[in-house]
Design brief:
12 strands, alpha/beta, three-stranded parallel beta sheet, Purple Acid Phosphatase, chain A, domain 2, six-stranded mixed beta sheet
């Protein structure tokens, strides 16, 4: 969808675009080259998730990418930034992501304690803060939403690839959605080839599940900020198919 982002922005001009890019390299992890392609397409900041180190040598590349951050609750010995700060139209925007711990593989610090620490470290230097929680369960994601309500502009979930219908602005002023969905082929099983994935469920035999190619779509959200509070003023889901974009 990188070739279509500029067309989308002509119709929906926004000040900054952020994206999770952890499956950008053939469906598993990310490379410096792939990150640079996403950045050139118009994405200001890229977050990552539990597949952060799937691509060989990315641990040696990430420090050179000042627009990419790894999950903040990975061990401190991991390379890469645990947050990003951008200047957007004269305002400072802080962005970070944490990994959930329920049904997730990596051994990480408590995402709630980590988010407290980073929000406290960013609140005096940033006008607004965005928190991503890359997690398996909706209960853990929702808990993070309530935990940070009123302290960040938005808490949004990623990882499960399917957009949820619970997007809203919470009572403290933070926007929230359990999962923003996926940018990629929706004629698929979570972005993978349908027949291969279906076969694994039917007979239990291992097989490769290549990335699918049909019905490419872009999902996410548009967030409008209250300049006085740095919290959410308005919130709108994005769910576009390739055919929705002008030629």
């Amino acid at each position: 969808m990188s070739g279509h982002l500029s067309k989308f922005l002509e119709l929906f001009p926004v000040d900054a675009v952020f994206a999770n890019g952890e499956n950008a390299a053939g469906g598993a992890g990310i490379t410096a080259k792939t990150a640079e392609e996403i950045h050139r397409a118009g994405v200001m900041g890229i977050t990552l998730g539990d597949h952060v180190w799937d691509q060989k040598n990315f641990n040696n590349e990430i420090d050179g990418l000042d627009y990419v951050c790894r999950p903040a609750n990975l061990p401190a010995s991991n390379p890469g930034r645990d947050r990003l700060i951008f200047e957007v139209n004269g305002s400072k925007v802080g962005l970070f992501t944490v990994l959930g711990r329920t049904f997730m593989g990596p051994k990480v610090d408590c995402p709630f304690a980590t988010s407290d620490r980073i929000v406290n470290e960013l609140k005096d230097s940033c006008d607004t803060i965005l928190c991503e929680i890359h997690a398996e369960t909706t209960s853990e994601k929702e808990s993070m939403g309530w935990h940070l309500d009123g302290r960040v502009a938005m808490v949004y979930g990623t990882h499960t690839h399917v957009p949820t219908a619970d997007g809203r602005i919470l009572k403290g002023g933070s926007a929230y959605q359990s999962d923003l969905g996926m940018t990629g082929p929706r004629e698929s099983v979570l972005g993978r080839d349908i027949d291969a994935c279906l076969g694994r469920f039917k007979d239990g035999m291992p097989r490769k599940c290549p990335v699918a190619e049909g019905d490419v779509g872009m999902q996410g959200a548009i967030l409008e900020l209250n300049p006085d509070t740095g919290l959410a003023a308005n919130y709108q889901l994005i769910d576009w198919r390739e055919s929705d974009l002008p030629n």
